[in-house]
Each structure stands twice: as structure tokens, then as C-alpha cells.
Write a structure and sequence with these properties.
2 domains; about 55% helix; 5 strands; globular; Phosphorylase Kinase, domain 1; about 270 residues; alpha+beta
């Protein structure tokens, strides 16, 4: 048995889930491409179900965004990466996938705090002056809580979602096997070199669930821009950071994507450019 076959068999339940989710979101053709490696009966049943009028009216990008959101952390991040590759997925799909930057559900109450305490080795009540149990933001990999240091300094505490690292590594192993299988079996997909695309994504995703990498990047950027007053990089706090926890200086701001947003933030557009 080849290594690829062994991996596919080991993760058959997740593979079937992927095929079913794609089909349920009206991407039956994509699901059918994997029918040789997924259990036929459950996938075939959902592939041939009748789509609702709402599903039929949705664009390919909308349906793909829905499927990736349902599949969770790894696939949300994969969609975000694909949103930067209109050369591969087309402008319309890339634009729709860019909406995957939106908030995703946080962990159940108390879970993130318990995980942070396990990482840091002490209760947050001893480590911080205050710690908001309710996150103010939640992304595909982690959620962020407001807190203060014992001296009152406002900080943001980023905590990786419960079980995210294990799920990510399982999904990456499966994605690499599926990419290798499809590259061998599907000449059309092989032209996109899926194994190379997935390998690049795997390197990025592995770093994303290890917040020590992000802390290192913050420190490097702070050093690089130390003499630039108009560029502010949050200060990370090493003693309150670990592999799945990152405590950094709280900086207030607002996003902008067009001229009106820049001007509303009080910036002169030409000066910013």
C-alpha cells in the first residue's frame, strides 16, 4: 500500500466529510472528482440531491466560501490564501474568498482561558491586572481577549483555538495526500500543481498555529522600524507568551480599503502613499 493510499484510508471519515460538504454546497462536480478515494455511498447520496433555489442562485465563489467555512480552520485559511491567487481561481472567486477574513465563532466560554493558564503555568488572575473572559475578536486560528498587565498597561492576549493545532496537522496531512492523488489521476488539476500549492500552504499554516513565530516577527519588525515614527508595531511580552498564547501591546486603530476610509481616519492620502 502506497503512503498516499494509507493516508487517505486513515483519514477516510474526514475525506467523506469534505466530499459531502462540497456537494451540499452545490459543488458536486468537485466532490465527484474525489469519488475514487471517498466512500461511494454517502458521497453519492449527497452529490445527487436537489439543490434549493437559494443554492442554485449562489455563485461558485459564494458556495465555495460556505463550504470552506463549514470545514473549519485549515480550509478557511486555505481559502484566504486562494483569495490572493486570482490567477488560479479567477477574479470572481478570489473576491468572494476574500470575505473569509470575517469573524468565526469563538471557543465555548472558559475554554480559551483554561488553555492560556495551562500554557502559562499560572491563573490569569495572578498574571494580569485584569482579563476579559469574553473575546473581542475571533479568527480562523485564534481568538483575542482584552487584558491589562499588573501595572495597568492595556494588552491583547491571543489564544489559539482549542484543538486547532491537532486538527490543522490532520487536515494538512490529508490535503497533501489528496493533492498527490489528484495530481496523478486528474490531468486538468495536475496543471495547477496542487502538491506545490499545498506544500506552500502547509508551511504557512504550521507557522500560524505556533504563536512563537508571530512573536518573533513582531520583535524583528519593531527593530526594523525603530526609527520610523509613522509605523507602530505592537510590543510582545515574552514572559506572558508561549506556543499557543501571545500577549502584546494593545493598539487601537481602524481598517481602510479606499480613499474615503483613509480620509475618515484622519490621514492625507498622498502622505500615506
Amino acid at each position: 500500500m502506497s503512503e498516499v493510499t494509507g493516508t487517505l484510508l486513515r483519514h477516510r471519515a474526514r475525506l467523506n466529510e469534505m466530499a459531502s460538504v462540497l456537494a451540499r454546497h452545490g459543488l458536486a462536480e468537485w466532490a465527484a472528482r474525489g469519488s475514487g478515494i471517498a466512500t461511494a455511498r454517502p458521497v453519492d447520496r449527497v452529490v445527487h440531491r436537489v439543490l434549493t433555489p437559494e443554492e442554485m442562485g449562489a455563485s461558485t465563489g459564494e458556495r465555495l466560501r460556505g463550504a470552506l467555512t463549514e470545514l473549519g480552520t485549515t480550509y478557511i485559511k486555505f481559502g484566504q490564501m486562494l483569495s490572493l491567487r486570482p490567477d488560479l481561481v479567477g477574479e470572481d472567486v478570489a473576491n468572494e474568498l476574500s470575505k473569509l477574513q470575517a469573524t468565526v465563532p469563538a471557543d465555548p466560554p472558559g475554554v480559551a482561558q483554561r488553555n492560556a493558564e495551562a500554557q502559562l503555568g499560572r491563573p490569569v488572575s495572578e498574571l494580569f491586572g485584569s482579563f476579559d473572559a469574553e473575546p473581542f475578536a475571533s479568527g480562523s486560528v485564534a481568538q483575542v481577549h482584552r487584558a491589562t498587565l499588573v501595572d495597568g498597561t492595556a494588552v491583547a492576549v491571543k489564544i489559539v483555538h482549542d484543538g486547532a493545532e491537532v486538527k490543522v496537522h490532520e487536515d494538512l496531512e490529508l490535503m497533501q495526500a489528496v493533492a498527490a492523488y489528484l495530481e496523478d489521476e486528474d490531468p486538468e488539476l495536475a496543471q495547477l500543481r496542487p502538491t506545490i500549492l499545498v506544500a506552500e500552504f502547509a508551511a504557512m499554516m504550521t507557522a500560524a498555529v505556533d504563536l512563537r513565530e508571530e512573536r518573533s516577527n513582531l520583535e524583528r519588525f519593531r527593530l526594523n522600524f525603530a526609527d520610523e515614527p509613522d509605523v507602530v508595531i505592537p510590543q510582545p511580552y515574552e514572559d506572558l507568551s508561549r506556543q499557543h498564547v501571545l500577549t502584546m501591546e494593545m493598539i487601537s486603530g481602524q481598517p481602510f480599503t479606499d480613499r474615503a476610509g483613509v480620509e475618515a481616519a484622519g490621514w492625507d492620502v498622498d502622505a500615506l502613499v
